[in-house]
Amino acid sequence: RTTLRFPSVFFPLLLLGLVLATGCSPTKRLGEGEVFLKDNEVVVVDGVSVDFPLYELEELVRPKTNRKTLVFRFNLWAYNRIDPVKQYKANLRKLSDTEHKISRLRRRQSRIDSTRWRCRHLQHRINKVTYKPIRGWRDWMRETVGEPPVLVDQERSQQTAEYLGIFMSKRGYFDNQVTLQLDTTRNRKKATARYW
């Protein structure tokens, strides 16, 4: 008798994937009036053929959207998972621990004769503790792995439209017109920039 193991392995992985994908919205920590840039699209009007690949135009588009790992914006998820308030409190706690450690070492140093090697050793330890940057796993996750959300910048998008027009003129399409259209979602927190 053969047992099918695929569903028993597949179901927990599917459940984990759904939890990760729906656990954090990219617009979770956006401020009032900020709009998340979901996608950039370069569209050539029907009936116009171009003799160069469209990815050359897509490379000129700024700002770039957040990176995707497979179909998921992992770096943005990692950035949003870390609560800035908790990160700040943890850093304050580490700072007070460091100050306490330094004061304890200085008290010990004052009791020891300054000519002895132990005093020099303690001074070295004090310098090592003092100049060590206060960073924890939250800082590493947010600044190294994480990527802040890319916001819609109207001025920069308009400059991109101008650059695309200049690029098309240099390629011989002198009678071109590049128009920027920002399509927002219903809650006006996400937008797609279309250049056509």
Tally of helical segments: 7
Mean of residue pLDDT?
Answer: 82
Number of strands: 3
Report helical residue fraction.
40-55%
Largest sheet: number of strands, sense, barrel closure? 3 strands, mixed
Order of helices and strands: HEHHHHHHEE
Structural class estimated from helices and strands: mainly alpha
Distance between the termini: 61 Å
Model regions low in confidence, pLDDT < 50 over at least 5 residues: none
Q: Strand order across the biggest sheet? A: 1-3-2
Work out the radius of gyration.
27 Å
Based on Cα principal axes, name the global outline: elongated
* Share of β-strand residues: 5-15%
Structure description:
The protein is mainly alpha-helical and 196 residues long. The protein contains seven helices and three strands. It has a three-stranded mixed sheet with strand order 1-3-2. Strand 2 and strand 3 form a beta hairpin. Helix 3 packs antiparallel against helix 6 and helix 4 runs antiparallel to helix 5. The chain is elongated. The model has no long low-confidence stretch (mean pLDDT 82).
Describe the structure concisely:
With 196 residues, the chain is mainly alpha-helical. It contains 7 helices and 3 strands; from the N terminus they run αβααααααββ. Helix content is 51%, strand content 9%.
Please describe the topology of this protein:
Layout: H1 6-22, E1 36-42, H2 55-60, H3 74-81, H4 84-111, H5 117-130, H6 137-145, H7 154-170, E2 180-184, E3 190-195
Parallel strand pairs: 1-3
Antiparallel strand pairs: 2-3
